[in-house]
Specification:
The protein has 57 residues and is α/β, with parallel strands linked by helices. Helix content is 18%, strand content 19%.
Length: 57
């Protein structure tokens, strides 16, 4: 299994919540697991090696 399938992906959509599902679907199509995706938060930092997917409108 590639790293894409096991690493956590933190999603940043800069207030564009309507884009969140589209971003998730595109990442799933590229091998990322939906269960490993979560919205990024200022309350919790990720771990070294985790991924960030950012949409800048």
């Amino acid at each position: 299994m590639s790293e894409a399938g096991v690493k956590t992906v933190y999603l940043i959509v800069h207030g564009q919540k309507q884009l969140l599902e589209q971003v998730i679907e595109k990442l799933v199509a590229r091998g990322f697991k939906r269960s490993n995706m979560q919205a990024a938060s200022l309350e919790k930092a990720g771990n070294k090696g985790d991924f960030v997917a950012m949409v800048w409108p």
